[in-house]
Amino acid sequence: MTLQLDRASTIEVIGGADTHAETVHVAAVNQLGVPLGDAEFPTTAAGYQQALEFLATFEVPVATVGIEGTASYGAGLAAACAQAGLEVLEVNRPDRSARRARGKSDPIDAYQAGLAVLSGRATAAPKSQDLHGLAAVQVARRSAVKAATAVSNQIRDLLVTAPASLRDKYRDLAGQALMAALARCRPDQGPAGHRLTLVALKSLARRHQDLSAEGAELLIELGAEARRLNPYLLSLTGVGPENGAKLLITAGANPARLRSEASFAALCGTAPVQASSGKVTRHRYSRGGDRQANSALHNIGITRAGCQERTREYLAAQRATRKHTGAGVMRKLKRAIAREIYQALTNPQPVPEVEDLRPLRKAKKITLQQAAEALGTYPTKISRTEKNTHPDYDLATRYRTWLTAA
Q1: How far out from the chain centre does Cα 202 lie?
Q2: What is the pTM of this model?
Q3: Contacts of 346 (CB under 8 A, 6+ apart)
Q4: Which string of DSSP letters, residue by residue, matches 103-163?
Q5: Which 8-state DSSP code applies to residue 93?
Q6: What CA–CA distance (Å, rounded) separates 359 from 382?
Q7: Which of the four pLDDT bands, split at 50, 70 and 90, describes residue 281?
Q8: Which class for 303: exposed (0-12), middle (13-18), buried (19 or more C-beta within 10 A)?
Q9: What's the farthest any 2 CA atoms get from each other in the chain?
Q10: E strand or H helix at 90, and its extent?
Q11: pLDDT > 80? residue 275
Q12: What percent of the chain has pLDDT over 70?
């Protein structure tokens, strides 16, 4: 531990922390940017408590702490500081020019984190701790889906090079039907030369079934948690559990992190980037931002283009101007969707209750098919709305009105 200034001369003290897997280095500066002291602590509950005690030893206790990596190595320290009543701000890694000028060490980075808060460069609140579970489930589901896709590709490649009789037998099957047929095949009853190929195909098919079931279970968990955090977001057309989870993780489930609708669009990589030169004035597609959030907006746009009349009219009007290519039109659509998503994240609206719809329908002895025909939709959509797994809240409002009058 080093102390470099008389604490009595301090008026305001700001903390900074450089975080690692096993240790955190904490420093303090006064409002003039003068270093006051720094110390290193282990990344344990006891270590975080010692860090808080160190920050409280100054004449004026630290009220604000800038922490690097609040969503990774600094998550534990950020949670401890927030629980102790300190204001926590997220600090980006120092730029390379500053590192070249001042060098690189844990104390230097810790002091730089405090100076980032003092200068106003660090103003973002850390991501909500509620997101840890949501992010964990998303990682597990993404892994399961990726592994299932790899297994599916392996099965396809094995069938391409399999004997002609095997190719002909499974040629007309695809998707889950193919996996089910391969999973129940009996390698010992086939031709002798095909046995090992069938053993491999059967093993891969069973693995694909297990991974698909795992992915489906995790999607249910993902939807339930995302709906708990922001049910209004998931009520928007095309959002769904997976896209909603991506957007919540990007936004940090913390509206204070989003300064404006334009900053959220830039965060998602949908803000137009100047690409003008000479007499040509134009914008190009942004390749920055969070690509998971950008993917979610793209998926929402594709879904709405297929089922929402307003979106189809917007796309037709943009194409009619002949000012944009197909990619340019999609960029403008994603920018418009980002505007709507921002409002849902920062100002969520109440959503109607749906738990009583199923008992109400059963009490009136109405079947799903009858309700679907009356509302001009599919029985599956009504069932999902009743179970609150993939609810359509616009449909739920019409459904309730119809049930009440039936």
Answers
A1: 35
A2: 0.78
A3: 255, 258
A4: ---HHHHHHHHHHHHHHTS--BPPPPTTHHHHHHHHHHHHHHHHHHHHHHHHHHHHHHSS-
A5: P
A6: 13
A7: confident
A8: middle
A9: 89
A10: strand 87-91
A11: no
A12: 93
Bridge partners of residue 66, in order along the sequence: 16, 89
Contact at 8 Å (CB) between 286 and 273? Answer: yes
Angle between helices 45-55 and 75-83 (to 10 degrees): 60
Amino acid at 92: N
Q: Are 55 and 15 in contact (CB under 8 A)?
A: yes
- Starting at the earlier edge strand, list the strands of the sheet with 2-3: 2-3, 35-42, 23-30, 13-19, 64-68, 87-91
Q: Is the pLDDT of residue 11 over 50?
A: yes
Place of tokens 């969070």: 290
Q: What is the DSSP letter of 394?
A: H
314/233 Cα distance (integer angstroms):
22
Q: Which residues of 307-337 are buried (b: 16+ CB within 10 A; e: fewer)?
A: eeeebeebbeebeeeeeeeeebbbbbbbbbb
**Could you give the C-alpha distances from 348 to 133, 165, 177, 278, 389, in angstroms and in order?**
21, 58, 41, 44, 19
Q: Which residue has the tokens 């129940």?
A: 184
